């Protein structure tokens, strides 16, 4: 196991930690198991078992709906894990800037333990056990004064999240007979001026063996994974792993994909079909399929069951009669229902200081193809990291939830909690017209485009285990419209595009509650909220929608962008007409890593049938 860092002397001689980052970054970019480049060192963030809060007083975040959903998945995972009921989510521990000390904050391990001498004539690859630390750097004794060394930039990983040192000695001597292998290897790492893989090779000066690093890109030429999980401590290693090691550049974007699930804090009187029926059970207990239409005319019943289809009402009534416990509703289904049934704005409506969820439906009639515009004056979102992957990201389902048992690396061995943050902010919710979407989905041009997108999706997922389901044309439409609106709103709302975050609500007509909505929100961890700029612009959404559609009509990369086919060999299998010139936004804004995008579904673009566009008329 790699060793911990030493402190460094700061101003006034005080001991300072070797690095710092914000709490909100700890559940995303720099979470447990991630590799971090500090000023003088390379670090591996420890598992949450090694995080320490001041005086063991953790900041607890409560969100029962999200806790229950994650807890049920953890119990069904392999191996099963229990999630605390009272303190399931905790804020990452903060350090003390005035008096930094080792028993506070997040531990980091020195990783990798192989270093490269920076003497151009030496370039030795040396293990840290053979180096001496002088000041902030390790020094190699190739000269009398010593030469600085830097951590190697290559490590080994596997799709199950395991992480290991790159097998330098094994790699350069692979293929040699065991009895003839070099007994005193002395390795060098030589690089060309370009730094390209083709110009990087490892040489053993003792026996003359040499090998190019480009060969390590072929995983079949690498050894089997040893199941190493150094961020979890000495007992964290797994014995069995069927994968081979993959060469990984430790600073590459595919070295860490955080899996974050989130939920909005909505009132306890959340509206679902079971609570609605129970509120009028004195009437509904006698319902039958024949008399249900008549019962729905009773004002009390009509108000309670507005928006629910008769077949779903009857099924829920049967479940209640038979004492069958209903499955907990998906998080986004409950949130969507709260948005679409929001109260209309009224004179003097103002959220209370204690409100965590305050939404009002805009009085001004919505533009064409849009059913509702809801202004979210106050929102509280809880974001929780449930795991991470390496090499390949795993997409959540349409509810924004991950299958924790599928290639998800663990954050701890024994902890019964997960790291989380809460974000207070505001937003705008846009619900598309369901009837217009159904008509659009049935158009021949849309069906044909769906075949192309499905073919690209199948090519992208051909070699993946447990591939997700194709999200469908409705999702492509919502996601593409979301990105266009983010760009358009950022020009006037006072927030940068990277500060506006999307939340897609999508479910097909076959679901009990079909959904077609977008929440664009902004907020900051550790603050009480925002200044209302996004809500103000939501009152003038027609203007921003027109600007968004104008942005989508023409891309600076057209006609190449517009005419891109997902099945082309460019490997952009998950996109239609989308690129950095039109639809791609900051990763902090997009839930889906800039995938599943096609602006030709939103607005008419060059080279496509106008019937393909959902917004055929300017709002």
Helix count equals 14
Number of strands: 26
Strand fraction equals 15-25%
For the largest beta-sheet, the strand count, sense and barrel status come to: 8 strands, mixed
Overall geometry: globular
Q: State the helical fraction.
A: 10-25%
Oligomer: single chain
Structural class: alpha+beta
Radius of gyration (Å): 28 Å
Which stretches are poorly predicted, pLDDT < 50 over at least 5 residues?
Answer: 1-13
Structural topology:
Blueprint: E1 8-9, E2 15-16, H1 23-26, E3 35-37, E4 42-45, E5 51-52, E6 60-61, H2 64-75, E7 89-90, E8 105-106, E9 108-110, E10 114-117, E11 124-127, E12 132-134, E13 137-140, E14 147-151, E15 154-157, E16 163-165, H3 168-172, E17 187-190, E18 201-204, E19 210-212, E20 246-249, E21 257-264, H4 273-279, H5 281-284, H6 292-295, H7 299-304, H8 310-321, H9 331-340, E22 358-361, E23 370-389, E24 418-432, H10 434-441, H11 444-460, H12 473-490, E25 501-507, E26 515-525, H13 533-538, H14 541-553
Parallel strand pairs: 7-24
Antiparallel strand pairs: 1-2, 3-4, 4-9, 5-8, 6-7, 10-11, 10-14, 11-17, 12-13, 13-14, 15-16, 15-20, 17-18, 18-19, 21-23, 22-23, 23-24, 24-26, 25-26
